[in-house]
Structures are given as structure tokens and as C-alpha cells.
Amino acid sequence: MLNFKIDEARCTQCGMCSKECPTLIINGKNGIPEIKEGKEKNCIKCQHCLAICPTAALSIFGKNPDDSLLVEDETPSTEALERLIKTRRSVRRFKKEAIDSAVINQLIETAAYAPTGHNKNQVLLSVTDSKEALAKVRTLVYDTIKKAKQADKLEGALAMYGSFQKVWEEKGIDVIFRDAPHLIIASAPKSNSNGPADCVISLSYFELLANSMGIGTLWNGFLKSVFEEIAPELHNAVGIPEEHAIGYMMVYGIPAVKFTRSVQSEGLNLNKINL
């Protein structure tokens, strides 16, 4: 059920909702907008109709339009957002302090606004919200690597993980987690062809907001390899559904390092399409 409702006292019959609907299921030509007969199933749940209504007259899926943020309110300037993107750095040294759970909730709730293919919204964010929870994951990961090493399962490129485990056990040097206090993993159903991209987009939104708060982040390819190539059973251990694939993962916390300027990127590879 779309639960499509119009507040007739607010509706100006401008027709903007019907014009913006990507699947053209709203009839706005006969006064008060309504869903065309038999077309409910074509809705892709984008909520564009709710977002575009200038008078907050339209509700769908039980959403109250008055609870939505207004686009006309203050947004970051182009210069501020550009500076945030260009000065973002991967952080590999973190302070020991944990981030307040309310801040973590704000980060993950905002990440849920990231776009997903076909508006499926199937990205699962698995998080640790305390240092203690991360410490348990860290112990589990290094213990699992040790068992794999003892079973001679770390061959080729995976051999370096045995070295990571050794320096952790003997010297307390945490190469994989970098002593970060928090972890976030984005996964999505394997059946969703857009899942890998959706996960990365979600974490990108998470990262930019985190960086704006002074929170450092590190995209953790080492840990992803442990979960995928050394010990797939870790998925179940941390509560990731069997039918899910990990898109990516990230550790984060308060940086113990302060960068003073941006790098000077040489990474632009450009192809101007000229047919």
C-alpha cells in the first residue's frame, strides 16, 4: 500500500507531483492528484512526489511532509564542500577515546539517505558502538588469522597477514585496525547487482559527514580481505546475513594526527566524449 494522501486544504493542484513521478503513476490533470488505477505496483518508492510538493500537501507511505528537511535552509557552500573533499585524508592513528553513541547514530542515520540502485535501500550497516565491542572483533580477527596460519592456509599474498598477527601478539602493534575504536561494515544481498556500489556510496556519505565533525576514517581493505579470503565464517560471527556480500568496511575515530594542508592530486584521468 502506498498510503498516498493529499491534504486538499494545502494542495494548489499545480501538478508538479505528477510531472516529477519517474514512473508516471500520478494523475494530476483532474484536480486533486491521485494514483492511476492499477499503477501502484509501478512505484519505485523514491518519494519524489513528497519532496517536490511546494505546500507539503502530499503524504506517501505514512510520511509526514512537515517532518522533512527544507531544501531552502542553509546548506554547505560550494567552497566549503570542495575544501572538505580535497582535505580528506585516510587516518591511521587514532586517539583512544570512543565516540559518543548519539554521534554514531547520527552518522549511520544520515548514511541511510545515500542513493541506492532502484531505491531498494538494502544496504545493511553493521557497527560497533563502543571500544569494547571493537576490541572483541579485533581479538576474534587476529585469533582467526593465527588459526589459519597454523593450518598453513596463508599462502601467497595472504602470508603477510601472518606477520600482522605476529606483531600484534608479540608487540601489540595493530596493523589491521590501527587501534581505531570503531568499525562499520556495509553489506547488501548478493542477489542485488547494485549492492557493491550501494555499499560504497553509503560509506562515502558516512565518511564525509564524519570528516565534517572532525572524525577520521580509514577504508579498510586489509580487514575486508580477512573476511572474504581467510575466514568467511566471520560474516556470521558479526551478524552479517549469509545471503549478504560485504561491499566495504571502514574503521573510524578521533584522529591522533592533524594534517595541515591538502595533497596535490595527480589522479584525474579524463576522457571527453565526443561522438
TrEMBL record:
Keywords for the protein's UniProt record, in alphabetical order: Iron, Iron-sulfur, Metal-binding, Oxidoreductase
PROSITE patterns: 4FE4S_FER_1, 4FE4S_FER_2
Domain 4Fe-4S ferredoxin-type: 2-31, 33-63
Pfam families, alphabetized: Fer4_9 (PF13187), Nitroreductase (PF00881)
Stated family: Belongs to the nitroreductase family.
The protein, known as: Nitroreductase family protein
